[in-house]
Amino acid sequence: MPLKDIIFGKDRYSKSAHKLYVAVVEQARNPVFYSDLGVPDSLDGRFELISLHTFLVLHRLKSETGEAGIAIGQGLVDLMFADMDQSLREMGVGDMGVGKRVKKMAEAFQGRVTAYSSALVADDETQLHDALRRNLFGTRDQVEAHDLGQISDYMHHQAAFLGQQESADILDGIIAFLQPGQK
Predict the structure, then answer these.
(1) Contact of 37 with 150, CB cutoff 8 Å
(2) CA-to-CA distance for 95 and 145, rounded, in angstroms?
(3) 138-169 burial by CB neighbour count: b if 16+ within 10 A, else e?
(4) How confident is the prediction for the chain on average, in pLDDT?
(5) Would you give the DSSP letter of residue 66?
(6) What DSSP string describes 105-116?
């Protein structure tokens, strides 16, 4: 489904999902991640930060009961992959290759959601550091312990901060993120 159809779809939750996705992308583009926290400033690094922030929003949406949280979460993921599809096409990836690459990205994203969720729920720093090393920092030869610690702390603080936000706001697509390093 084309990105514009998802954004302007007839689904009553599509506007909320779109607003959340815009906030996710804006947060993932924060230069601090790349300049101060060691995230590779590359296509992979950007995908990883969008995935990480989408995960954090999905993690928050899990606390919502009923149809809205599920529908908005699905809409958020659909937008993410429609955007990835469109970006690949704009970069010149041929039609035949786009589907395969998006499928790989979707599988990778699902793996990240599982790994990050498991680590956060278990409150297991070693598990979270391993997941971040494999994924967010996966293209780097060496990862500084400081960078892992900073991103791990960021995820914990961000999850707690998102958890304090009003359900009505989140379901309306209104979300705020902490700045990296902010508690």
Answers:
(1) yes
(2) 40
(3) eebeebeeebbebbbebbeebeebbeeeeeee
(4) 90
(5) S
(6) HHHHHHHHHHHH
Section 124-132 average pLDDT: 96
Query: Do 1 and 73 contact (CB within 8 A), yes or no?
Result: no
Q: Specify burial of residue 19 (Cβ count, 10 A radius: 0-12, 13-18, 19+).
A: middle
- Rounded Cα distance between 179 and 183, Å, is 8
Contact (CB, 8 A) for 16 and 172: yes
Proportion of the chain in helix, strand, coil states, percent, rounded to 5: 70, 0, 30
Give me the count of residues in the chain.
183
Residue 50: what pLDDT?
97
Q: Put residue 179 in one of left, alpha, beta given phi > 0 → left and psi -120 to 50 → alpha.
A: beta
Is the Cα dihedral 90, 91, 96, 101 positive or negative?
negative
Q: DSSP assignment, residue 139?
A: T
How far apart, in Å, are the Cα atoms of 105 and each of 50, 55, 82, 135, 144?
12, 14, 11, 12, 26
pLDDT at residue 94, rounded to an integer: 67
List pLDDT tens digits, range 66-96. Answer: 889 999 999 999 999 999 888 877 877 666 6
pLDDT bin (cut points 50, 70, 90) of residue 43 is confident
